[in-house]
Write a structure and sequence with these properties.
The chain is an alpha/beta fold. It has two domains: 37 residues; 254 residues, Metallo-beta-lactamase, Chain A (4-Layer Sandwich). It is built from ten helices and 15 strands. Helix 5 packs parallel to helix 6. The longest helix has 31 residues. Bound molecules: zinc ion. Zinc ion binds next to helix 4.
């Protein structure tokens, strides 16, 4: 009798082990063949409640990629809430503020400075000096590596003058924006390379998602891939203006974007975007929008339907 039970038990263990193996294999295959529609580990974890669900979407979410040439400036609007990611180059202040004014934006609940380069914080001091800001998010750097550029120091001075609350960008931090949610994914570690301390964020609204890479390079992408963060996004703000220092195939494959937005200037001296990156995005069937071709690019979603309109 005891022998029979033992036999049954070991057979049960074998069946459970086999089922687990098959399950793992199917999920792994699903990671590489997204068209199979098999959920990824990330999605399984999310659906199992390991990450808190967002509030039900109310109204519309708009994401404006403001054309500031070979620089970044992104406005997010949901209900009464607004957020800005980066503030263009030096000299873009009037353009950015006029654009925000034309959209009726009179305050910014969250402002993110992805990293200290002038093509991201060029006009940040003007934005801080002009509009009330609820919270400013940026990467902190060791004192020995703090930039000494006038642009960076002007930004710090404006933040200090206006007594704006500043958060150090911390992976996992969540900022609610109306019924949308902005989650900080990086920086995951310190780096001497300023591009690689970029504040990377993922925005979700209902079933739709956006991933904003700043100028993070492949080194950061690798960390994000192994970190286990949810990276899938309907819209990817391509890292580093489409430079080949970012957007590895493995990373793009994980993000699996339907749309890729590249903020790049007409005939820019860096030759952004790289043909290699364009080919990878094309291979993954992402529709590409570029500032040099399309001007301002605006995405609108109700949490399900996703529309895009462009200036040009
Ligand atoms: Zn840049």
């Amino acid at each position: 009798m005891a022998r029979k039970r033992k036999f049954k038990q070991s057979r049960l263990y074998a069946i459970v082990a086999a089922a687990v193996l098959v399950f793992c294999a199917v999920i792994q295959i699903g990671q590489y063949i997204p068209s199979l529609g098999i959920p990824s580990w990330d999605e399984l974890f999310a659906s199992a409640g390991f990450s808190e669900p967002s509030a039900a979407p109310e109204g519309e979410l708009q994401v404006h990629f403001i054309d500031v040439g070979n620089a970044d400036c992104i406005l997010i609007r949901q209900g009464e809430a607004s957020a800005l990611i980066d503030a263009g180059e030096r000299g873009d202040g009037d353009l950015i503020l006029a654009h925000l004014n034309s959209l009726g934006v009179s305050k910014l609940d969250i402002v993110i400075a992805t990293h200290p380069h002038a093509d991201h914080i060029g006009a940040m001091a003007e934005v801080v000096n002009t509009l009330p800001i609820g919270k400013f998010v940026m990467s902190f750097m060791p004192e020995s590596e703090t930039p000494t550029t006038a642009t960076y120091l002007n930004m710090l001075e404006a933040l200090d003058d206006k007594q704006v609350p500043v958060d150090e960008a911390s992976p996992g931090a969540v900022y609610e924006l109306g019924t949308a949610r902005l989650t900080v994914l990086a920086p995951l570690e310190e780096s001497k390379e300023e591009n690689n301390i970029s504040v990377v964020t993922r925005l979700t609204f209902g079933e739709r998602s956006f991933l904003f890479m700043g100028d993070a390079e492949t080194e950061v992408e690798k960390k994000l891939l192994t970190d286990g963060a949810v990276l899938t996004a309907d819209v990817l703000k391509v890292g580093h203006h489409g430079s080949s220092t970012s957007s590895s195939y493995a990373f793009l494959q994980r993000v699996s974007p339907q749309y890729a937005v590249i903020p790049c200037g007409v005939d820019n001296s860096y030759d952004h975007p790289s043909d290699k990156v364009l080919a990878r995005l094309d291979d993954l069937n992402a529709t590409i929008y570029r500032a040099d071709v399309h001007g301002h690019i605006v995405f609108t979603t109700d949490g399900k339907k996703l529309d895009v309109s462009t200036e040009k």
